[in-house]
Amino acid sequence: MSVKAFKLVPAVEWERLMRDKARISVECIECCGKNLYIGTNDCFIYHFLLEEKISSVGKITFTATKQLHKYLGFKKAVSELKAASALNRLLVLCDNAITLVNMMNLEPVPTGARIKGAVTFTLNENPVNGDPFCVEVCIISVKRRTIQMFMVYEDRVQIVKEVFTPEQPCAVAVDGHYLCLALTTQYIILNYNTGTSQDLFPYCSEEKRPIVKRIGREEFLLAGPGGLGMFATVDGISQRAPVHWSENVIGAALCFPYVVALDDEFITVHSMLDQQLKQTLPFKEGHILQDFEGKVIVATNKGVYILVPLPLERQIQDLLASHRVEEALVLAKGARRNIPKEKFQVMYKRILQQAGFIHFAQLQFLEAKELFRTGQLDVRELISLYPFLLPTSSSFTRSHPPLHEYADLNQLTQGDQEKMTKCKRFLMSYLNEVRSTEVTNGYKEDIDTALLKLYAEANHESLLDLLVSENFCLLTDSAAWLEKHKKYFALGLLYHYNGQDAAALQLWVKIVNGDIQDSTRSDLYEYIVDFLTFCSDQELVWKYAEWALQKSEEVGVQIFTKRPLEEQQKTSFNPDDVMNCLNKYSKSLVKYLEYLVLDKKIEKEKYHTHLAVLYLEAVLKSVTIDNCEELTETRTKLRSLLQKSDFYRIHFILDKIRGTDLHMERAILYGKLEEHDKALHILVHELKDFTAAEDYCIWSSESKDLPYKQRLFHMLLSVYLNPVSSGCELVMAAVDLLNNHAAEFDAACVLQLVPDSWSVQLLSPFLTGAMRESIHTKRMTQIALGLAKAENLIYKHDKVKLKGTPIILSDKKLCQLCQSPFSDPAFVRYPDGGMVHTHCAGNRFLNPNLTHHLSNPSSQT
Questions:
Q1: Element at 41 (helix H, strand E)
Q2: How far, in Å, CA of 563 to CA of 582, rounded?
Q3: pLDDT confidence of 31, banded at 50, 70, 90?
Q4: DSSP secondary structure string for all residues of 632-666
Q5: Which coarse location class describes where this protein primarily resides (predicted)?
Q6: From CA 289, how far away is CA 242, in angstroms rounded?
Q7: Is 199 in contact with 183 (CB distance < 8 Å)?
């Protein structure tokens, strides 16, 4: 596919060059700055001054002003011209001799310095000699298979090297010490300094004209077989793919990133970046194509033309306009070397963004996303394509010049709803990815608001996730949009995020009451209760507590019973106020009191008593309506409370129970009053529940000492063995009690109580258990005694160690503190062996070290 990379502009036309000399033709050209030199077949050199002009519409023209011309005095054509601007010299090859002439007046140097015997020559553009006033010239000599290297100065020449080649050379290019040679049958790389050579590939110079051109440091362009333009380095390898020329290529030139080739009828332009043919220009009778410092000049026998490169930016924009995205990006990357870094970065980002929009318009979303991210697109450029997504308060204006040609998404999709849906899905995904990145700094409100609108319109599940996490949705725009799409629950979340809990609750309550319709959450009532549970605004909680309780007492009371600990610390509700609110709701009141008494462990009599009364009333009510299941559950709770709590009014509850069938509960209350005989009488004689009687003894003696526990079990045994009410059933209960709880009895006392008629076999489990318990107790006592003796022995050993070596005290010993002799046998000795008076040791302020000694438990006296 074609790209307009160059424009062919006339530079020197035939009329200005030759006037009426019809047989005169252009043989060679050289351009140095604005100086253009033309060598003709009649041995003349013409010097022109080139002036470039740009019109108001951007059209480029060249004006060639003739400075002078010079006849060299030979009858042969001027074969080659090379300018050495550092020397102000023009090297002219004519009749196998290279003459040095002045660049301005075209006069030969006075010394007559010249190089003889040259078939063709070239300059070393990467010289190995460090002299700035010298150029290195490489010639193909008239001698067979010979290359010669010369140093050319302002007025003299000097041969420095002569190199012999395997075959006759036809063309040469030089870079440093390396020669790239077209021989008769092949191309080679030759290091003239070391003499080493590297074969490249075969080529028949008799069939086609060889081309050897240096295109960069240690790299050459060659005309290969099969119409290929081959790239080769001095190491003999190719780092670029070849370009496909015509079979009849005459010349080649380089104007990065393009390779320009000339054949009999066309000028072709190939890209070095992707090796594709980019442009073809008709051009007949051309026989010269050369590049000079970025200027590409082509010539026929009768005229000279310049290939003017169009600006790379314009070429890239043309490619983008043709939707040739990949080519545009390749060209843009290649342009890096020709454009200043800062300018390139700005340009390249814009190109990436434009390419992204092209892919986007083609619904190639993965490619578009990658280009948008790499090009750091202001995502509002994308959002602005979607009508009404940007907030009304947004100050965004689109880039100028525009990044794309579309007014909005409707134009881009031409009203195709399926395409619009795909585009919206892409934007949702893209915004969700970039909203947390640094590229969105400064306009997060625009992004989050647009994302909310897309989610709401598409009924997307991520709408709620957006609103319950950190977001920057603008309230006014977002609220109107959510209301438009009947997303009332989400609107409530938006109000809550913006600190408007009252508005949120009002909206949600309307949904639950059926005033407005929104099926987002089927458990919205439970959600509101949970919301109120975490709400720190007490006024708001009280406002909606009644409503929640009316809907469900069991769920509504959770507003007060499931408040998190940190919320309780910040906003503590007075339990009395809560209970006043719950008085109309008995189930809620019970739940709340259970929360206070059982969960929070509040030790207040009124709460414990109130809960017990409510349990009792519920039990009595269940009895009247014959609700067995509820009765069992509530009665279990009542018994548990009566057993475990020590804070209710026992007599008050007992008075309420009298006259009912709640015998077990009455027994528990008697137990709390330490009236165990009454309690056991109820359990044994009224309820005849022997298991319950045993359990009573166990729980009543919890956290009590062994004698207390034994007393309870002995009381129960006495009840069983009471001769007044004794019966076979009670006897069996007594036997079971003894056999099952042998460790809880004093065996000696039991043997005095049991009737003599009882056999040993009947009490064998009890007796066995009692014996085991007695032996176990004895052994444990022996172990404890042994441990105590061992501990005492350790202490005695420590005491002996502490006594240590005998201490001798004489009248020659002096107190360490007062330095006075001892007049009394009483003294204090420190662990370091120092001795002081007892009264000196008592004075802790005499010596700073004294406190340390006295506090040491190892001090000896």
A1: none
A2: 16
A3: very high
A4: HHHHHHHHHHHHH-S-S-HHHHHHHHTTSS-HHHH
A5: cytoplasm
A6: 19
A7: no
